[in-house]
Amino acid sequence: MKKRIYRTNRCFPPPSFLCLWTVQFFVFHSLLLLAISDTQIQFIDVTREAGIHWTHVDGRSGEKYCMEMLGSGAAFFDYDADGDPDLYLVNGAPLPGYHTTEIPTNSLYENNGDGTFTDVTLKAGVGDTGYGHGCAVGDYDNNGYLDIYVTNYGKNRLYKNNGDGTFTDVTEKAGVVEPRWSTSCAFADYDRDGNIDLYVVNYLEYNIDENPWCGIKEKGIRAYCEPDNFQAQADTLYRNNGDGTFTDVTKSVGIYNDTGKGLGVVWGDYNNDGNPDVYVANDSTENFFYTNLGNGTFSEVGFMIGVALSEYGVAENGMGTAFGDWDNNGWLDLTVTNYADQTNTFYQNDGDGFFTDATSITKTALITYPYLGWATAFVDFNNDGYGDVFVANGHLQDNLKELGLEGTYAQRNLLFQNKQNGTFTEVSQSLGPGFGFEDVSRGATFADYDLDGDIDVFVTNSNTPPRLLRNDGGNRNNWLQIKMKATRSASDAVGTRVKITTGDLSQIREVQSGDGYLSQRELKLHFGIGKHNAVDKIEILWVSGSTRIVQQVPANQVLSLQED
Amino acid sequence: MLPKHIVYILFFCLVVCSKTWVATAQTPEDYYQRGIQEIRQGEYTRALQNFQIAVEHNPGFAKAHAAVGTIYLQLKDFTKSEISLKRALQITPNLMQAETNLALLYTKTSRIDQAIDLYRNLTRKYPKVVGVWLGLAAAYQQNKQFQESIEIYHQSLNLSPNIAEAMSNLASCYEAIDKIDQAIKYYKQAIHLKPKLPMANGNLGVIYLRQGELDKALPLLENAVRNDPSFTAARFSLGLLLIKKREYERATRTFRSVIAQQSDHIGAYYNLAQTLFRLKQIDAGKKAMETYRRLSRIAQEIDTRQRATLNEPANPQKHYKLGLTYQKYQKYDQAINAFQEALRLNPKLTDAHYRLGQLYLRARKLPESEKAFLAGIAIAPEQALLHAGLAAVYYTQGRLNDAFLEYNTALKYDATLAIAKAGIAAIHHRREEIDKAINAYLEVLTLDVNAHYALNGLARLYLEVKPNGNNHMTPQNIVDLAEKAVRLLPRPQYMHTLALAYLYAGEHQKAVNTINTAIKLEPKNVSFQQTLVKIKADEKTNLQNK
């Protein structure tokens, strides 16, 4: 079993080599004309020049309160519906023993459309001062504007977007207070009634007033307590009543489980039956997979289908999680980030209802082993048509050496380039200065914030400023972005499945609310299409069940589509 | 991950140096030579007997003492091994076999500093004996001083370049410090020298498996398992590989084999369930899943206790509690280690002495058990359980008078100690004081109506005496007693009693079923086998009479 703090023996030693993006030579579908070898992309840290002067505050005072470990997330979303992604940042709060004159708040930065942002928190009214962790966006009231749900240690918040640049806190009225310790959250229309529902992941039964002393008592070296010291808290599923209120349906739909110490959540249709299923990454307990039975209820099948544990049958310390079809076979695969001295796990969807642990086959095992992973996402950074994998890393113990542990508190983030043959190569060290930092990263969100046709990265760091990493060069390959508005389905189109075909390569994406860890990527879908000048076919499956096909769409544009 | 076992080199140089034994054993030297011959044939127990006779006949026979110590080392009886090796060195201080094996014993008993010191001395004395260098390297390796270990392995290989085991150990050192390329290189060299070497094949196979090189890993893991069928870790890795290749039927068989070798292998149960689900054998899969969950809960409990000891390594209570948890789940060797560590930190922890005494008694290590109970009594002379434990040791040794005295001492300090009363009953039984024994057992049951040992003892007694003027027990009464004992604690010994009770009651089929269950649990128990034969014979006679 895991020895979260003290484990030192290494089962998967890291390799001593690093592969460079530029020296990779790929054998792939020549007909597709997908060009990689000439695509040298770079990430540049543009946080300050973009006008984001913000620092995460975890409120630490040396008392090692558990919420300090988790950090906070962020969301890219177009709050003012002007076509460019804005940025919402979740913040911590002062904890007992922490002194400040300035109360940290969550912040909303409006995208100015010129590569810079302006802080509009006060005007927008979304500066929650609770101890925040996660956020997700979705249009819960179908008014055409994206709302924000924020998870806290303490009461969560639902901010209704009024459509005029302001928000209203409707938490109590909507019935989504959730007083437990919530982490990640995500919207999805699980019952396909045209109103998005809300999954809230809860973590531990932890009372700040009864903060236990953990660490090496004999030496007086204090550490953050492991989750094993606390009871788990059950997650909550809120069904949207369609009238601005929600009902807690956790037990009645078969979601209730009080053994999971949840941190990450992601919705996705893993069995292609049209119903969104939900996966929860739990910290030190089995991960959950709730398959949607299509009748408004779920069945937990994580163990049975092979995504609950490591291949050794061990419950790992799951942190973040993401769905993505890394092998472009039309079935959503899954990844989970885990603790240091555990690999991040890659579960390959076999298309028959089961997943196979393909971690070693993807050739990511040895590389992720020493890192403590948090946010993760499948994103096609070089527009070659295959989802690459981003991982945010950073240890949670800030005194590793004193504790006699290997590793470092600050760690570098990783980017795995998809080699288009079921394997990945870690290329972050060839991606320029943006990936040269060692930070204590937690959340991450993704969007083409500068509207140049490639996906940029925003990473949140614990108790330090975040980083906005601009992707330069990803757009040397062609791309297509699709912005969807639903009519019969929930207006934000969350859960919509899009399949595009270029030559003999097909890709699928789903519009996802909440993914990775505590965060939310932009809802607009982004596809890389290599050197193709057009997409042959776009097939859209809306949540309502209606479909639409669009043919011969020129590359390098944002395509807006509406449900008929 | 395969455990990186170190291949140790045991110094049986006596085998090489000795002449062939031909004559009938007469002198100590003859017995010694006979022992040597038996070692050549792998007959360690018989060899040990001959070495012991040699020592009895000539207590100053250093080589024979060393041989006894060496055999005990091979048989993992480290206490006896150390006594004999040290005795040999008292007689002949420079006896290489005794010195080198003593160093190995230190390594195996985790007294690494002593081992390293001794090996260092030996390398100065015998700089050209490669085995000594390898012993030093292995000690460093066990102590996780991998750089030192690597250096010494290289020196050893300079002396003798073709020792595949040393090459394999060297590779695993490189693996431990993340130098995978070097590890691969030396595993390959080891396999080149000795193609069937299981550890090198298995470890290299696992490296390739982790690297996702399934086709390279497969033949290596197959080779490892073929050449060492007991290599459970390699077999498990082979199963993992087969799952990745979607060969579910073969993977199922592989995981079943792993479980046959190690019945508490959590990973094997998990993967067995996975393969069975994929083969649509849902019920069997669920059964494996349930077993997995049960084992997993145990592992978690142990893990929590282990982490507590890591949090507070100098807190004896944490080690004691870890020992209790190990004991609870029948992990007796680990329990002994934990209790010993608790006592090292606090020699006055009487509960740990008691638990150690219990565990040694269970393992029939009676001198160690006696020592543990006496140590506890020296600290807490009024603790009844310690006296009862000591009495049990004496009883097992056949020292009935001493046992009787100790049980009574226990009862003096705790008159309600049912187990002491039951001990007295057993002594009466052994002395054939049947009425006293019955009364004592009945007293036990007044103290504790669920005292399974008393129920079993009583049933056993009644089976022996059968109805007479003093007791009116019917066969069904005896069956009831025995059944209750088994219900309370399904021990094979209690099942044996129950089978005999069924036999006495003429219920042959139940008797056969019950004794077969006991045999399944303890296949090597001769007494159970004899009872099965007896039941079948009785049944046959009955049928013939009918």
Description:
The complex is a heterodimer of chains A (564) and B (546). With 564 residues, chain A is mainly β. Chain A is built from four helices and 39 strands. In chain A, a hairpin with an 8-residue loop joins strand 10 (182-188) and strand 11 (197-202). The longest helix of chain A is centred in the N-terminal third of the chain and has 4 residues, at 121-124. Chain B is an all-alpha fold. Among the domains of chain B are: 1-160, Alpha Horseshoe (Serine Threonine Protein Phosphatase 5, Tetratricopeptide repeat); 450-546, Tetratricopeptide repeat domain (Serine Threonine Protein Phosphatase 5, Tetratricopeptide repeat, Alpha Horseshoe). The longest helix of chain B is centred in the middle third of the chain and has 30 residues, at 282-311. Chain B is globular, with a radius of gyration of 28 Å. The N and C termini of chain B lie far apart (63 Å). In chain B, 46% of the residues are buried. The chains are: A mainly beta (564), B mainly alpha (546). Chain A binds chain B through residues 1-3, 5-6, 10-16, 214-218, 226, 228, 303-306, 309, 311-315, 350, 354, 356-358, 360-363, 365-366, 423, and chain B through 1, 175-181, 209-212, 214, 240, 243-244, 246, 266-267, 269-271, 273-274, 277-278, 285, 289, 292, 296, 299-300, 302-304, 306-307, 310-315.
In short:
The complex is a heterodimer of chains A (564) and B (546). By secondary structure, chain A is an all-beta fold.
What structural keywords apply?
heterodimer; A: 564 residues; mainly beta; four-stranded antiparallel β-sheet; 3% helix; B: 546 residues; mainly alpha; Serine Threonine Protein Phosphatase 5, Tetratricopeptide repeat; 77% helix
Question: How many distinct beta strands of chain A?
Answer: 39
- Mass-distribution shape of chain A: globular
Quote the distance from N terminus to C terminus of chain A.
53 Å
Spatial extent as radius of gyration of chain A? 22 Å
